[in-house]
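User: Run a structure prediction on this.
Assistant: Running it now.
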Amino acid sequence: MGKLLILIWTLLALAAIAVALVLWANRPRRVSVEVPVSSAFPERGYAHDSFAKLMNEHVDADGRVDYERWRSSAESVAQLDNYLAAISRYSPDSSPERFATRNDELAYWMYAYNAWVIKGVLLNWPLDSVTDVKAPLEVVKGMGFFYQLRFPFGGKFMSLLTVENSIIRKRYKDPRIHFVLNCASESCPVARPELPVGGALEELLATAASEFINDSRNVAVDHDRHVVILNTIFKWYRKDFSHHMLAIGRPTQNDLLAYLETVAEEPLLGELKRAADYAVEFGDYDWKLNEVR
């Protein structure tokens, strides 16, 4: 009995040491911009105009980003840093008086997330995928970029994973955010130059959801095999879509297909109605960088 206890305690100690080593090796790496907030930034409210201008300059009609040209332009890099300086200093948590509505808050978190993703790519350029930014001990794919890197939002350094899951998803409970947040990869939603706030944000969320879902690369029906093939985003965040159906009073076992029908347009809508009892499959996620080709 005594030897067994010693063995158990030894194994527990080794496990604790292993966990400590993983945490130490993957300790956060802070990323920040060393510029002050521009004097042109408004004293009240919040402005995303400068980021919108950059997105219009460096995002093509297909929603891909010209990282090479952006990185090569000292002016564009400086403009992005100026925008991120404001993101770093102000947030709905640190400066709630700047955000008049819930939509203004949500717009901040989504655009700030997208802007830091772009900065993360530029800082590590050239790269073929954000998953090329590795943590020393990478337990899951993307850990280096989305967890180990920590970016400032209103004075608080957080990972992109924390911002998405603990703030955007938890607070705002709108599954359409998954069609706006851009992780710089081919299978994620396209980059969008327009950055509305307030009441106008509703139109962006609706448009983004419609365009994503009605794209056959994200939702496809195979009648021969009796399956609906979905982008992996629907697998990762299935709970969000299910909770939305519950919130609008339409709970169902086939939660994903039911949600898709609320957004799908013809001919997809008709295809989904025929596929009401089909199985659901998820395609492989393409982590290749969403760069201009």
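The longest strand covers residues 149-153.
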